[in-house]
Amino acid sequence: MTLPFFPPDLFEGDRDVLLKLLHEVGTDPEQKFILGRRTAALEKELREMTGAGDVIACGSGTGALTLAVHALDIGPGDEVIVPAFCCQPVASTVANVGATPVFADADPWTMVLDPDAVESLITERTRAIMPAHVFSIMADMPRIAEIAARHDLPVIEDAAVAQGAVLDGRPAGLWGDLGVFSFFQVKAFGTAGEGGVVLTDRPELARRVRELRNHGQDGITRFLHHRIGHNSRFDEIIAAFQLHRLPGFPDRLERRAQIADYYTERFTPLRDRGVVAPPPGRNGRCYYVYSLLIERREDLRAYLTERGIGTHIYYPVPLPLQPAFAEFAPEGVRWPGAEQVSRRNLAIPIWPHMSDADVEYVADSVCEFFD
Ligand SMILES: *Cc1c(COP(=O)(O)O)cnc(C)c1O
């Protein structure tokens, strides 16, 4: 049996549709390839599905974070609190507007940023808090929202990996003043290319994001630039493909959730052998990646490789320890939670098209290693 970590057949059932849509958009008399009626339809569907006041489609998840940071007028001299253990766009999008990413440590179990660390890093220069949901766990949004409200700070919620997740009845992406999803291939609602969205209930921020995604234009008067913006537009072929994929999304997400439930049930008893499974349950959980924390990570990884099971190590170096962000890592500061999860996380396959036998094989293999 071979179970690659990144399966090449994620869109196997949709190949013919993709070809058909390529032809359809390519030969459409309108000849509009970005920000057309299909993009508008996708935005509308996602508005209805999430309940967001507005959804603005853009070039990628990174593009969405860039637009969110820019829409809040964050710039030089400003600080944004971001997770130390995360995907690098949480820090680069802040640095790229000339502001300072301030790294908050991760909780060593849930791997998301620790609200206590966030609170202690707030200064008079702080302009926003940017929590991110990581792997299968949403950040502690109630506490972060409470801290942000107390300090009168906006929240940019990086929900790149958490589309479809719900915490205390509120969908991921709607906890922040601005939220973002990514459609990068392997994300929950991944696609055959690049894409992302910004979600917000605040009409003024939505208007700014819309302008900023297309060079500061308002979508009505061409070549009138209200502000300096970006090229972060959405592709019509991808919009058509995502519209086609959207009705199946809840089922695929549910399948991922079932696999995660099963894994957690199997792995929780291994705690005294140095295996930490994510917390069980469905509240505040997403199913982008299923990561365990393992003391003997390299040994388990080699064992699973031998058994044909692909694994993946995410973020082996915490962001503040990366050469790119050295100037934002204050001397003498440590991020022990982030360093620990960088050393221990190991992700195992969790794809909606895995069969029950595949899932059992993975779980059995992990358990056998510890027997
Ligand atoms: C993937 C990801 C992004 C960036 O999304 P892209 O669409 O790849 O640009 C941002 N934040 C997190 C947490 C991610 O996992």
Automatic annotation (TrEMBL):
<protein>
    <submittedName>
        <fullName>dTDP-4-amino-4,6-dideoxygalactose transaminase</fullName>
    </submittedName>
</protein>
<dbReference type="InterPro" id="IPR015421">
    <property type="entry name" value="PyrdxlP-dep_Trfase_major"/>
</dbReference>
<dbReference type="InterPro" id="IPR000653">
    <property type="entry name" value="DegT/StrS_aminotransferase"/>
</dbReference>
<dbReference type="Pfam" id="PF01041">
    <property type="entry name" value="DegT_DnrJ_EryC1"/>
</dbReference>
<keyword id="KW-0663">Pyridoxal phosphate</keyword>
<dbReference type="InterPro" id="IPR015424">
    <property type="entry name" value="PyrdxlP-dep_Trfase"/>
</dbReference>
<dbReference type="GO" id="GO:0008483">
    <property type="term" value="F:transaminase activity"/>
</dbReference>
<dbReference type="InterPro" id="IPR015422">
    <property type="entry name" value="PyrdxlP-dep_Trfase_small"/>
</dbReference>
<dbReference type="GO" id="GO:0030170">
    <property type="term" value="F:pyridoxal phosphate binding"/>
</dbReference>
<comment type="similarity">
    <text>Belongs to the DegT/DnrJ/EryC1 family.</text>
</comment>
<feature type="modified residue" description="N6-(pyridoxal phosphate)lysine">
    <location>
        <position position="187"/>
    </location>
</feature>
<dbReference type="GO" id="GO:0000271">
    <property type="term" value="P:polysaccharide biosynthetic process"/>
</dbReference>
<feature type="active site" description="Proton acceptor">
    <location>
        <position position="187"/>
    </location>
</feature>
